[in-house]
């Protein structure tokens, strides 16, 4: 039992950190551009597919990672230039529909290119075994994912709070027109924020790829979780996304992982095994409702 | 009612007559298979019309509308599972359950606006999705079969394809008449005013939240009844009916047809399902084409097919120059 809890707590933190990578891009794009991008989850998927493809050709996970990130950014850049920049001025309904169309296109496009079967993406061999942590075995790859996620989160913190671009981004989330009036190139800022957000989503997809199946539609449910994170944290707030991601990661993983065990203390094993995972999956939405009940614009509203 | 009837243009009436005659035409031409397809279209037309009412007239961009569709379907299947054979009772239960769900979801979601509203309706729908996935007793993930279609009495047979088709057509017609009356009523005008300028409507004395919630519940009931019909049509329900991608598809239908045009939902559902029917029988991956068509419509004709056909006035055209947003 102790071992299980230890493992689940670490898993939940690791999942929360990955969710942060996805949600931070989503919330930045919302915050700065007032743009609702449902296709964000598709880039989570595309990143994983490109990495699995390159890793399959070259035999190296690291080459897959290094190759997939710039390729995803390039695709995002093209997409922004061809389609999305025409949507910034439109209302949210149009943005939702157009990016929903992109989800349909992306999901079928990867099926057409790589086939309907999931692609294998193996962990790098150096990290495929367990390590001992406080005397208990834990997957070294998951630790690596956590460490990488924390490094990226810190870099993002530095970028947003200590650099000129970060200052524009913070100002843009607050009052975009004023930023434009101060002579900042808003188009360029948009493109930078957009590419950055998509690369973060792709990074999460690549790092989670070996643990979940790399298949069409893998980004769809992640997208909803990222939405919940953004709503809990407050749209446009990166610290909010960090708190929201940890809350959702912990509640979701612990809910699914521990609830069946907990319930079996009160219910028959059979009932606990059938009801537990469903209630576990519902937990994060209940948390979200609770947060919204007291704070209708999230924990850290970026716009007043 | 008299005034309303005189306002109906002849085209929809002719179409209705054609639709009534369809089973005989299909029989004569040996295309009975298409009665099933048409039934599905009519059910989705009803569902999409309820979302169009919410979206185009109430100004609420709900990304979780399929939840009521699924609840109506599940209530139907569960009622039949427990031996209920009276369709009227089933519909009463389905309407009550979706009204209750609409009240709960609406009360939570309407506390928020704009992007938050979109995301919260989506997330709340997922909550119900997982609820039905967890209902292991009623099939869970695998869904629930229905042993038989409940009957409506009066000596009418809805077990056969044609009888059920006429039943669905009656439901759709009734829904559209109700919506037409509703939109012309004091309530509909107030709702329209609230969509165009909520602050002004409040100032005039309309409690906007109460109006929006009432509209939300009405749309939920219509969607729940449509869900009940799809359950009876397929004799099978599964959590897929209320997955968020289904809600997305519904939005697609309304957008294709034309948001805020009275027949936008009907037209959108018909075009979407026809597209699906044709594409899925010719190509393996048909959704990519739906995506491309949708993208083209959104970019080139954002007011949908109705605007291209110049089908009357859209509710949206009244607010030229007004600010956008949910």
List the helices and strands and how they pair.
The complex is a heterodimer of chains A (304) and B (326).
Chain A: H1 2-33, H2 40-58, H3 61-82, H4 92-114, E1 130-133, E2 136-139, H5 140-162, H6 164-174, H7 176-181, H8 186-208, H9 218-233, H10 238-263, H11 269-294
Antiparallel strand pairs in A: 1-2
Chain B: H1 2-7, H2 10-29, H3 33-57, H4 66-81, H5 87-109, H6 114-134, E1 144-145, H7 161-184, H8 186-196, H9 198-204, H10 208-234, E2 236-237, H11 244-257, H12 264-282, H13 287-300, H14 304-309
Antiparallel strand pairs in B: 1-2
Task: Report what the structure shows.
The complex is a heterodimer of chains A (304) and B (326). In chain A, a hairpin with a 2-residue loop joins strand 1 and strand 2 (136-139). With 304 residues, chain A is mainly α. The termini of chain A are far apart. In chain A, strands 1-2 form a two-stranded antiparallel sheet. Chain A is 75% helix and 3% strand. The mean pLDDT of chain A is 85. Chain A has one domain (2-130, 137-294): ABC transporter involved in vitamin B12 uptake, BtuC (Orthogonal Bundle). Chain B has 326 residues and is mostly helical. Chain B has a domain at 40-243. Helices cover 71% and strands 1% of the residues of chain B. Chain B is built from 14 helices and two strands. Chain B has helices at 2-7, 10-29, 33-57, 66-81, 87-109, 114-134, 161-184, 186-196, 198-204, 208-234, 244-257, 264-282, 287-300, 304-309; strands at 144-145, 236-237. Chain B has a two-stranded antiparallel sheet with strand order 1-2. Mean pLDDT of chain B is 86; it is low at 319-326. At the A-B interface, helix 4, helix 9 and helix 11 of A face helix 6, helix 11 and helix 13 of B.
Strand content of chain A: under 5%
Kindly name the structural category of chain B.
Answer: mainly alpha
**Tally of extended strands of chain A?**
2
Give the topology string of chain B: H per helix, E per strand.
Answer: HHHHHHEHHHHEHHHH
Question: What proportion of the residues of chain B is helical, as a percent range?
Answer: over 70%
- Return residue spans of chain A where pLDDT drops below 50 for at least 5 consecutive residues: none
- What's the total helix number of chain B? 14
Radius of gyration of chain A: 20 Å
What share of residues of chain A is helical?
A: over 70%
Classify the oligomer: heterodimer
Second CATH tier, the architecture of chain A: Orthogonal Bundle
Whole-number average pLDDT of chain B? 86
Number of strands of chain B: 2
Task: Using the coordinates shown, work out and report the CATH topology of chain A.
Answer: ABC transporter involved in vitamin B12 uptake, BtuC
Structural class of chain A: mainly alpha
